[in-house]
Amino acid sequence: MAWGKPKKSSKRDTKLKQRQNSGDHNHRLSGPMEVALRVQFLDLLHTLHPVSISTPMSLPPVVYHYFQTPLPYARTLALQERLHQIQLGSRRASSHQDILLLLQHRPVYTTGRRQTEHELQSERARLTKIGAEFVTTSRGGQLTYHGPGQLVGYPLLDLGRTSPPMGIRDYICRMQKMIQIHLMSAHKLAHVPSDHTGVFLDPATKVASIGVQVRHRLTTHGFAMNVSKEPLEWFDRVVACGLADVKAGCIEVAAGKQIQVRDVVEGVVDVFGELYGRVMEKLRVESAGEVGEAILALEEEALEAGNWPNAPTS
């Protein structure tokens, strides 16, 4: 069986290899289909409410960090909690930062707060046998999968910064539209409307999930978007998000091109800033105090964790 290997970057601030602003020229659409995509793109923008009375110039930047090595889920959960506490403490002095963590996880199945441990006992035993971790969380949503080949974003934002404060529904709506716009602008992939939270390529194919938590107007958890084919076999082992008639899709299959997670990071960051009305800046980890120390510690732990399974073991 194949195993993934952690790779140490020669420079933490090395520029990501590919920008996804213009899509793959070998798969550029033309004619009626391109017109339809552009119309849908404009519709997405027009359905947004104004971000706030505040402007990007009046708000501090959102700092972002992309982890090069897939992270263990439980420790990443602990990192979110640590950064949440730092934000909560420094908010009293109005010195807190808004942060966007971008990453991949080691193979893991996670559940939301709606499901009880009694309900999940058999699933925990079955799924850990195939090589994945299994973690219960406090986010919204039900059972799902995270792993290599999937871009996970954890925005740690203060929704009270804007005037008026951003509501939770608006926050989730912007996150969903951010993914939809990225898929369309970078990969020429249209979404279809759904009654379910997340982003769908057709009524039976889901490419991205959303599950958030908000405490004291500070957000944790976030979104997951399938980029390469690697997550699909893991998704096939469960009914993700309780949707029995829905399968997982990915950008690689839908767009018909080879693509890796690192290729989409900068494009997602750009659209995130636009949708939330914020300037985005790369986090200078070495000079970021407690926040930087916590991030560096997790990166070292991820490297020490060694290889991970690329596919279910049975």
TrEMBL record:
Xref: Pfam families: LplA-B_cat
InterPro entries: aa-tRNA-synth_II/BPL/LPL, BPL_LPL_catalytic, Octanoyltransferase, Octanoyltransferase_CS
Stretch list, region Disordered: 1-30
Molecular function as annotated in GO: lipoyl(octanoyl) transferase activity
SUPFAM superfamilies: Class II aaRS and biotin synthetases
Basic residues bias (residue ranges): 1-10
Domain BPL/LPL catalytic: 94-280
EC number annotated for this UniProt entry: 2.3.1.181
Biological process per Gene Ontology, one example term: protein lipoylation
Family from the record: Belongs to the LipB family.
Name listed for the protein in its UniProt record: lipoyl(octanoyl) transferase
